[in-house]
What we know:
The complex is a heterodimer of chains A (about 240) and B (about 325). Chain A has about 240 residues and is mainly alpha-helical. Chain A has 13 helices and no strands. In chain A, helix 4 (about 70-80) runs parallel beside helix 8. Chain B contains eleven helices and 14 strands. In chain B, the strands form three sheets. A six-stranded mixed sheet of chain B has the order 6-7-8-3-9-10, sandwiched between helices. A four-stranded antiparallel sheet of chain B has the order 2-1-4-5. Chain B has a four-stranded antiparallel sheet with strand order 12-13-11-14, with helices on one face.
Amino acid sequence: MRTAQAVAWKEIQLYFSSPTAYIVGLIFLALTGFFFTQDLGDPFPEATLTPFFDGAIIVFILLAPALTMRLLAEESKLGTIELLLTSPVRDWEIIAGKYVASLVFFLVLVALSFFYAILLFVYASPDPGPIYAGYLGLVLYGAAALAVGLLTSTMTNNQIVSAVVAMGILLALFFADRAFGSVSGLAGEIIGEMGLRGHFQDFSRGVIDTSNIVYFLSVIAVFLFLSIRMLESRRWR
Amino acid sequence: MTVNDLQPNMIHAENLTHYYGPYPAIQDVNFGVRKGEILGFLGPNGAGKTTTMRIITGFVPPTHGTVTLDGYDVVEQSLEARRRVGYLPETVPLYTDMSVNSYLKYMGTLRGMSPDAIKTRLGQVIDVCRLGDYRKTQIGKLSKGFRQRVGIAQAILHEPQVLVLDEPTIGIDPIQVVETRKLIQELGRDQTVVLSSHILPEVSMICDRVLIIDEGRIVAEDTPKNLAEGLQGVERLEVEIGGPAAEVLPMLKGIDGVSDVTHVNNNGRHTYMVQAQPGKDLRDDISQVVVNNGWSLRGLQLVGMSLEEIFLRLTTHEEL
């Protein structure tokens, strides 16, 4: 456990000293700021964070892979994976440490966006329900996106490949709910149910549905599990 | 685990075979290393040294065969085995954006050292590897020699029972090479050290025992001294003869007990390398032949085999 902490701590320090993370933060705040202010020009603007949430989940398809692409791909590239895997550290400890580090950085980004919520509460009286629920959904969504990115980072020693593949998987999952209309029968139902967007929308409307929470936790669990197995399989190549 | 002689092997490898796809990197490699012994792997590039070391450290599992470290199987009881290993891979793996200090602390934690233990050991290791002035330096800014020292520092930090060093002196300057060799010899007193090298004098200097590995197989295994002596049973003579080479060569070859003769024409000085069958002293026969033919014997010298030659002989598949 102490080793997982050490891995996480090292990665967190690296996040806060690397330009990539700050660029990601800058893009996140710039774009979500734009989404947030979009409706404010209306003659009767609504005190809501829904446009922010809907924009943030699209932005995160691009930004989550940028945060995770380095995590294991770089270890493979530098060869440090050889030391990591020959140290008495369990594979899950490595994955857990790396994942927690990316999650911490992501949570800091999300926390920065509280600024929008504070503005709303100061200058208007928004319905707090959708804001709380939306944030819960955003954290779950982001955590899932990071797990996807972590998996692709364990698969390659090329950070670009890791990021692009992760974006592909996230886009596919994002739009999977379209299968409800276009794919017939059970297959359509199953693929549709896998959609990231569909499960997020309830949250931004202020609905906390257990099935949505279970969905996101499952996505996280599946991708973390696959990451551990993928790391394990590096020993067999 | 098997018991060899009185003392159990610290490292025990049995029938190690590893395939990369259809190609065998190593085949049926067997060896044991005792506590306090320094074993050297010697072999040309691609012989399977690195693969063997990766198997010992648990980075790559063998396709067949087993390795135990202190009785722990590196595959089945990987974590226990890994606790006992310090490893310096061939390309020193360093996080270039960390400082020497924080890198070593991090590696110590990964190796399961307590913060207190790291604190005390860190100072010692920094002294031993002469990194004192560079504690706070970012590793990316260090020269290759210093990076190598950092690599060695992380390998010995946790005082592992088994130290695996893949080409430990590659890329560092001669003074550091001497220091590093000294360091390895000191470590080898209580720890078990396995190192690979293609620098023969280095291996004969540091190692208690040498394994010569070629095309994935062990072709010789002995102390550096015995290896050299064993193969010196083959007498070799360097003879310089004044006379027409075309006649001299067949005559020399015709002497009973000669297994091979090579001729070198060095600006009119004709030297012949005569390879005798083991145990034969041909000096008298050769001088007799020279005298009988009316040539002049300008030089006659017994030549021993250097470790380089032994190595070349063993790995280039020449008949002895």
